[in-house]
Structure formats: structure tokens, C-alpha cells
Design goal:
Glutaredoxin
């Protein structure tokens, strides 16, 4: 099940990760939300699967929008953001990319990254 990124008013996060449908959709999410954490993932990736419940929790407890990009479905989009391995997490604030990390990060580290840009 995917979440409708257009529900709620602009600038409000949803309480579930949003599955990105393409480059235009990702750009729209970044433009419409103050802080966006993008998870570039693959369904076959073990660390990505371990990160999924962490991101689900963060979507409900932080002000950031969590967006998920399947690198197998969107190879050009992943390439445009320099994704060389999965999971890669890119953090956007005010429409600009401010952080990028490859590998699964623990929930407390992700929460502090997000909170550094939402406070």
C-alpha cells in the first residue's frame, strides 16, 4: 500500500513513508516539505529490510517526510543522486540536500539528524 503524498496540506509530513513514483514526484515532495529523508533502497537488500521498520517509526514520530525510492524501479533517479550502494539515505532541508549516508543508520542517529533540521 502506498500513501498519497498529496494528502494533508503542503509542509505537513505523513505518518507513513511515501513511495516515490519518479523524479518529478520526488522533486515535488522535496519542494512541498521542509525536511525530507529519502531512502534509496532495494527489495532484495537485507540492511534495507532491517531499516524499514525504523523509517516507519520515524515517519510517525518526526516532522520529516520519509520518502522511499526503489533503486531497481528508478535507476536513473538513483544515479542522479549519486547512489552507489543501498541503503542510501539523503536528507533534504529547505529544498536542498544537506546530508547523505550510505548504510543503515540506527534510529537514534536518524532522529537526531532529522531534528537538527526541524527545530
Amino acid at each position: 500500500m502506498t500513501t498519497d503524498a498529496h494528502s494533508g496540506s503542503p509542509g505537513q509530513s505523513t505518518d507513513r513513508p511515501v513511495h516515490v513514483e519518479g523524479e518529478d514526484h520526488l522533486e515535488e515532495l522535496i519542494a512541498d516539505n521542509d525536511v525530507v529523508l529519502v531512502d534509496f533502497f532495494a527489495t532484495w537488500c537485507g540492511p534495507c529490510q532491517m531499516l524499514e521498520p525504523v523509517l516507519d517509526g520515524l515517519a510517525g514520530e518526526t516532522d520529516a517526510l520519509i520518502a522511499k525510492v526503489d533503486v531497481d524501479d528508478h535507476q536513473q533517479l538513483a544515479g542522479a543522486y549519486g547512489v552507489r550502494g543501498v541503503p542510501t539515505l539523503a536528507l533534504f532541508a529547505g529544498g536542498e540536500q544537506v546530508e547523505q549516508h550510505t548504510g543503515a543508520l540506527p534510529a537514534d542517529r536518524l532522529r537526531s539528524l532529522i531534528e537538527g533540521y526541524t527545530e
